[in-house]
Amino acid sequence: MRRLTLAIALAVGPFVLAPPAQAQGDPQKGRELANKHCIRCHVVGDDPFAGIDSTPSFRFLTKLSDYVERLQTFYRRAPHPVFVEVPGVPRRTEIPAFVAKFTVTPENIEDIIAFVKTLEGK
Ligand code: HEC
């Protein structure tokens, strides 16, 4: 019995202990998504004339030590909950959107993060 338990522990252990697979975003897709959804308010890349004044540029975001977390949770941070929907995530507010709404999936967000990472140090 003991041997069997050990055998099971050895067989299952690596899978239990292995960290969850890190979703790897696609920076090219992320650039396209940022150009589609974020650029009307943010400076997302090279074009300094896009965006509105009250937003951080994505290049500036990379200077913050927690920028990846900020991007992972952007749809919960003001002002986004009003106009961003993520399938499977309950809406936080029923306030009517004041601008055009859009939907992003968790995979889309990983892609956007992969793209913003390419702006680090620029
Ligand atoms: C309609 C305008 C608008 C759109 C579209 C928009 N944002 Fe924002 N975003 C803002 C504003 C305004 C702020 C600054 C909020 C503040 O300083 O309180 C902001 C801040 C942020 C921040 C920093 C949040 C924090 O708490 O530090 C992140 C990250 C962000 N946006 C990501 C995105 C991403 C990614 C997209 C596209 C998928 C996007 N935003 C689209 C208006 C927008």
Can you tell me about this structure?
- The chain has one domain: Cytochrome Bc1 Complex, Chain D, domain 2 (Orthogonal Bundle).
- The protein has 122 residues and is mainly alpha-helical.
- The longest helix is centred in the first third of the chain and has 16 residues.
- The protein has a two-stranded parallel ribbon.
- About 5% of the residues have low confidence.
- Helices cover 41% and strands 3% of the residues.
- The structure holds heme C.
Strand order of the largest sheet: 1-2
**Ligands:** heme C
Low-confidence stretches: 16-21
| Percent strand | under 5%
- Would you tell me the structural class of the helices and strands? mainly alpha
Q: CATH class, anyone? A: Mainly Alpha
Number of strands: 2
Give me the CATH fold name: Cytochrome Bc1 Complex, Chain D, domain 2
| Topology pattern, helix = H, strand = E | HHHHEEH
Mean pLDDT: 86
Computed over alpha carbons, the radius of gyration is 19 Å
Q: How far from one another are the termini?
A: 60 Å
Annotated CATH architecture: Orthogonal Bundle
Q: What proportion of the residues is helical, as a percent range?
A: 40-55%
Shape: globular
Main beta-sheet strand count, sense and barrel state: 2 strands, parallel
Q: How many structurally independent domains?
A: 1
